[in-house]
Design a protein that fits this description.
The protein is an alpha/beta fold. The chain is built from 24 helices and 17 strands. InterPro entries: AAA-ATPase-like_dom, P-loop_NTPase, PDDEXK_9.
């Protein structure tokens, strides 16, 4: 079986080393046939942006045109009219994905290093007799200790002009993850300096550049035009809301089924959809996260688990959710409860609006980052509203993990007090400790109101507490057992430890009985659905059954010990 290119975004390596490759080569045709000279394509992380940009580089590169032809022999682009453009253009390809520095000076120096590395890889242009001494020196000055910021800002403009002169051909400019340094600058406090530099840097390459054949920029966000793309009238933006190249990033259901068939894996397809499907890009519904699918197929013996949410930190998202106002929190709890929420969004990101907590900007950022997806669009001629939801189980987990942190503050009753009571199977102390902890730790504005938080929020909260037991116990959320799925099951890794727990949660609704009776209903469900069956049959533990009912910050527990 062929290897999967997990963590490999070099197109040439993927093809030459015979990694499994899902053919997205008609993306090249999309770029060539587009009327736009410059195209910005924002997509969530791990959706194949860098691999596609690497493919464009290999396709257009005039220096290795003959050498790279073989890379495309088995791909769809070989039969396209666009093939005549293969190997015809000099290329400037820069990836800014690693420009994540804490100061403006360090970030700029890192960008300078990237440009110097490009010059070293293309040193033949500086040896060309077609260039004047002055033209050569402009680029060489970047390699000196006394280099100037203005020369770096003009790099794309200068390099494209010189490349075009040397090769007597227009140039392709590819900038991958352009917004990585911008997002970091906002987090680190030097946003205005970075946005000013990037405006000049990108404008030099993409604004009124007579030497440009095609320019492609990828990232996650569509940073507001007035912030960075001012004056780029020829720039076309293709976000997850547009149809252009909608199926070229992410995997279609047909592509996923073909992959599973080829590697002879046949799990329940509905479960795969539940975990990794759910994205709508343009009019293409049911798009899959490629990173997660490849990881699942590679490690399918381990079962379903979140892969995408573990690829990088979620600091920006957490900061925004921490500062969410009551109205935004209401929408977030609706998302977590599985609802489709109708919302307005800002399609462009203005970071000052993030500072102000503007709801439309925050929701737009969640959408373009892949934490939400659209289900429908409504336009009344003045405003556009989108039906938004969490796309799948994998992304739901990231919300739950963030909620574990967002809902918890300092409290006199510590987490260890709750866990100690549970481990000691002390029912009265467990209820008291959990009640006190809830009263002082929940921080969402509306948590005190009946019905304001979905059961999933409480589930995530308790699951986060129990995660501290994972060194000695196995903690399972929604495991299949008896006649259904229990909310939480905990059992020892050491078979000599006699203890185990089954927990079932209920949230008080307007039509619910009093809180204590609701907790009793949770206990009755444990018995009627025989949730203790798996533990009794396989682990022979002394069980503590716990029915828990929540109402805002109030909690009631009913417990039962089964020796």
């Amino acid at each position: 079986m062929r290897k999967f290119p997990i963590g490999i975004s070099d197109f040439k390596r993927v093809i030459q080393d015979d990694y499994y490759y899902i053919d997205k080569s008609l993306f090249i045709e999309d770029i060539i046939e587009s009327n736009a000279i410059s195209i910005l394509i924002p997509r969530p992380r791990r959706f194949g942006k860098t691999l596609n940009m690497s493919m464009l580089h290999a396709f257009f590169d005039i220096k290795k045109g003959e050498e790279n032809k073989v890379l495309f022999d088995q791909l769809k682009i070989r039969q396209s009219e666009a093939w005549k453009h293969q190997g015809k253009y000099p290329v400037i390809y820069l990836s800014l994905k690693d420009i994540k520095k804490n100061t403006f000076e360090d970030a700029i120096y890192k960008i300078k290093v990237l440009c110097v590395e490009w010059l070293e890889e293309n040193e033949e242009i500086l040896q060309s007799n077609l260039l004047t001494i002055s033209e050569k020196n402009i680029l060489k000055d970047l390699t000196k200790d006394n280099w100037k910021l203005v020369d770096l800002e003009n790099f794309l403009k200068t390099a494209s002009k010189i490349l075009s002169k040397v090769y007597n051909q227009k140039v392709v400019i590819l900038i991958d993850e352009y917004d990585s340094c911008i997002i970091k600058s906002w987090e680190a406090g030097y946003y205005q300096e970075m946005i000013s530099f990037m405006r000049g840097f990108l404008s030099g390459g993409f604004k009124d550049n007579d030497h440009l054949f095609k320019g492609v920029i990828t990232g996650i966000l569509r940073v507001a035009k007035e912030s960075i793309f001012s004056g780029l009238n020829n720039l076309v933006v293709s976000t997850v809301l547009e149809n252009q190249s909608a199926d070229k990033f992410g995997l279609t259901e047909e592509e996923v089924k073909k992959l599973l068939q080829e590697v002879n894996i046949s799990p329940a397809f509905e479960e795969i959809k539940k975990w990794y499907n759910g994205y709508k890009i343009g009019q293409h519904t049911g798009m899959y996260n490629p990173w997660s699918i490849l990881n699942f197929v590679d490690k399918h013996d381990e079962g379903f688990k979140p892969y995408w949410v573990n690829t990088s930190a979620n600091e920006l998202i957490e900061v925004l959710l921490t500062n969410a106002n009551a109205d935004l929190e209401k929408k977030l709890t609706g998302f977590i409860d599985g609802q489709v929420m109708e919302c307005e969004i800002d399609e462009t990101t203005i970071f000052q609006d993030l500072d102000n907590g503007k709801q439309e900007t925050v929701l737009g950022l969640l959408l373009f980052n892949g934490y939400l997806t659209t289900t429908y669009t409504k336009n009344d001629g003045r405003k556009t509203h989108y039906g938004l939801k969490i796309p799948n189980e994998e992304v739901m987990i990231v919300y739950e993990k963030m909620l574990e942190r967002l809902l918890s503050k300092s409290t006199e009753v510590s987490e260890s007090t709750i866990l100690s009571a549970l481990l000691d199977q002390d029912a009265k102390e467990f209820e008291y400790a959990l009640s006190e902890y809830m009263l002082t730790s929940f921080s969402f504005h509306d948590v005190q109101h009946r019905g304001s938080l979905p059961e999933k929020v409480y589930h995530a909260f308790i699951l986060g507490l129990m995660a501290h037991l994972s060194t000695r116990f196995i903690v399972k959320s929604n495991p299949e057992t008896g006649l259904g799925r229990a909310d939480l099951m905990i059992y020892p890794k050491d078979n000599n430890d006699p203890r185990g727990w089954v927990l079932e949660f209920k949230k008080l609704k307007r039509s619910s009985p009093p809180l204590k009776e609701l907790a009793q209903e949770a206990m009755q469900q444990i018995h009627s659905s025989k949730y203790m069956t798996t533990l009794k049959e396989n682990y022979k533990t002394d069980l503590m059954l716990v029915g828990v009912a929540f109402d805002g910050k109030e909690v009631s527990c009913v417990t039962e010990l089964i020796p």
